[in-house]
Amino acid sequence: MAFTPRVFSGIKPSGDLHLGNYLGAIRRFVPLQETHETIYCVVDMHAITVWQEPEDLKRWTYEIAAAYIAAGLDPKKSIIFNQSQVMEHAELSWIFNCVARMGWMARMTQFKDKAGENSENVSLGLFAYPSLMAADILLYKSTAVPVGEDQRQHLELTRDIAKKFNHDFKKQIKAQGRKGDFFPITETLATGPAMRVKSLKDGSKKMSKSDASDLSTIYMMDDADMIAKKIKRATTDADALPSEAAGLAGRLEAENLVAIYASLANTSVDAVLAEFGGKGWGAFKPALGDLAVSVLSPIAEEMKRLVADRGEMDAILRDGAARARAIAETTMSEVREIVGFIR
Q1: At what angle do helices 310-339 and 88-97 cross, to 10 degrees?
Q2: Are 70 and 21 in contact (CB under 8 A)?
Q3: How far apart are CA 63 and CA 235, in angstroms?
Q4: Is the pLDDT of residue 121 over 90?
Q5: What is the pLDDT of residues 273-325, one digit of tens each?
Q6: Distance between CA 302 and CA 299 in Å, rounded?
Q7: Is the per-residue pLDDT at 33 higher than 70?
Q8: What is the CA radius of gyration of the chain?
C-alpha cells in the first residue's frame, strides 16, 4: 500500500540548545513543512535514560519547543509536541522490544560510546532506547526522517524492526485487508550538505554542551555580545583564508568557521572563500560575528518570549499532542489486533 509522505524528527531535552542543534537539525526542519506532513517531537522520554533533574528537564523541553517555533516551524502546519504526552510511544516501544534482537541492540555504537567501560551500570533504557526511537518513527508510519550521520545506524535498526514486524505478522496484516506492509521502510531524507558544527576551541571535536570551555559553544540563548566574544576568541591558525575549499584541508578550525559562515548565510563554502580568500582572521571573524548575531539574535529573543509564556507553550504542546495522538491511537489499535491483544 502507499503511505502518506510524512516526516518525523525529534530532539532530546538534555541540555541547553546550541548552534550545532540549530544548523544540524532545527533549521533543516522548516522547509519540510511545505512539502510533507511533518511531526516534530521533543523526546523527553529519551532524556531520562540518564538522570535528569526534573525541573531542568521541564525547562529544556519548553526551550526546544520554543526553538522549533522561533526558527520558523508553524504549529498549525507541523505537529509539535513532547513525547511523554502520547503514551503510545512507550506501548509500541515495548512491542518492538519483543521484535528486535539483543544482537541488534548490542551493535549500536552510540550505546558503546555513552556506556564506555561502565556498561553494566547504565540504565536498561539507555541500552534499549533505539527501540523507542523506532517506535517514535513508526508510530506515525513516517516515510522519511532527516537524520545526521550519528543517527544513521538507529534508522537502519528502525528499518530492520519494521521489516521483521511486517514479516512475522504478515498473515495478520493481510487479514486486516492490507495488500502490502503495515509499517513503511523509512528512508533517510536528504536536507542538503551534512552540517556537523565543531567546537570553537578544537576543530576535531563536535560542538557540545559538555565541553570544558564555555567559549567552545554558542548557545541559542546567548546574547549578541556573548556570540561576538566567542567567535572572536575561537581558535584559528596563522594563515590567511584560501581562495578555494581544497585549501582548507587539514585546517580543522578554519574549515569549521568557514562552514558555519556558509550555513548561516545559506551559501556555499566556495562562495565564502571567493569573498574572503587571501584575507586574515581579523577581517573574517568580525564578519562571521555580525552574521551570527543577525541570524541568531531574533531567534533567541523569540525563544525567550515563548519560554516565559507557559500558557502559550502549554496550549501549543497540548494541541500538538492531541493531533499526534489521533494518528498514534489508530496505529496502536491496529497493532494490538495484529499481535493478538484483546481489548
Answers
A1: 40
A2: no
A3: 29
A4: no
A5: 999 999 999 999 999 999 999 999 999 999 999 999 999 999 999 999 999 99
A6: 5
A7: yes
A8: 22
Residue 148, number of CB atoms within 10 A of its CB? 16
Residue 19: alpha-carbon gap to chain centroid: 12
Q: How far is CA 182 from CA 18, 164, 174, 334, in A?
A: 38, 11, 9, 9
* Residue for grid cell 567567535: 231
pLDDT one-digit tens code per residue, 158-207: 999 999 999 999 999 999 999 899 999 999 886 666 578 999 999 999 89
CB 180 within 8 A of CB 156: no
Upper half-sphere CA count for residue 338 (Cβ side, 13 Å) = 24
Catalytic-role residue among 58, 164, 206, 229: 206
For the question of residue 209 being annotated catalytic, the response is yes
Q: For this structure, is 164 an active site residue?
A: no
Q: What is the pLDDT of residues 229-269, one digit of tens each?
A: 999 999 999 999 999 999 999 999 999 999 999 999 999 99
Regarding pTM above 0.90, the answer is yes
Burial of 265 (0-12, 13-18, 19+ CB in 10 A): middle
Residue 284 is placed in which grid cell?
573574517
Of the residues 58, 163, 170, 209, only one is catalytic, namely 209
State residue 218's pLDDT score. 96
Q: Which three cell numbers stand for residue 13?
A: 531535552
Closest to 186 measured CA to CA, from 161, 149, 211: 161
Annotation marks residue 179 as catalytic: no
Joined together, the cell numbers standing for residue 50 give: 540518564
H/E element, 289: helix 281-308
Please check whether residue 93 is in contact with residue 70, taking contact to mean a CB–CB distance below 8 angstroms: no
